[in-house]
Amino acid sequence: MFTGLVSDIGEIVSVEQRGELKRLRVRCNYEAESIALGASVAHAGCCLTVVAIGRDGNRTWFDVDAAAETLALTTVGEWNVGRRINLERSLKIGDELGGHLVLGHVDGVAEILKRTSFDGMARFDIRAPHAIAKFIAQKGSVCLDGTSLTINTVDGDDFSILLIPHTLEVTTWGERQAGDRLNIEVDMMARYAARLVEAR
Q1: Which residues are catalytic?
Q2: 89-138 pLDDT per residue, tens
Q3: Radius of gyration in angstroms for the set of CA atoms belonging to the chain, rounded to a whole number
């Protein structure tokens, strides 16, 4: 379980194809001793399990495996060496819940249609996959590339978000432009509410 509050930006330093798996090595600023084998870490919103840990100079690295379904349904299959990704460690009992509850189970891939920058901020117009657009609600929450964000406007499958300078600085959002693809996870409360309505 996560909150969508990014705690580090990792960098992909190696990608190795292993049959239907891809093993990715991520360099980060977390202390190696603070990461356990088997730990869950959200990578641009995608929950992946740590399978190896080490140090490279003064920085930590860890390996994760991405299975065929993850590679097919998220942006993970597109990641190459040098790619920067938002990271978040899993919640512990007593942690502050500053964003919204995020599972790390990506629902699909959204696309940035337009970026408008002003006053150090940026508005992004984004298109959600049609099948999950019904879960996107004005003033509701959405997780995009591992970041908990508030939805400003909704128009069919399209919606907008507004990012403040701090978010642009401490996440990969400062680098995002029109045409970029994003992992999207809708608010689980919206998903369960819709399922209950359908069941009736």
Answers
A1: 2, 40, 47, 49, 67, 105, 150
A2: 997 777 777 778 889 999 999 999 999 999 999 999 999 999 999 999 99
A3: 17
Alpha-carbon span 193 to 26, nearest angstrom: 36
Note if the pTM is more than 0.85: yes
Amino acid occupying residue 10: G
- Is residue 146 included in any domain, yes or no? yes
Which domain does 82 fall in, by range? 8-89
23, 16 contact by CB (below 8 A): yes
Element (H, E) at 68: helix 68-73
CA distance 43 to 32: 17
Counted residue by residue, the chain has a size of: 200
Give the CATH number for residue 22.
2.40.30.20
Q: Is the residue at 2 inside a domain?
A: no
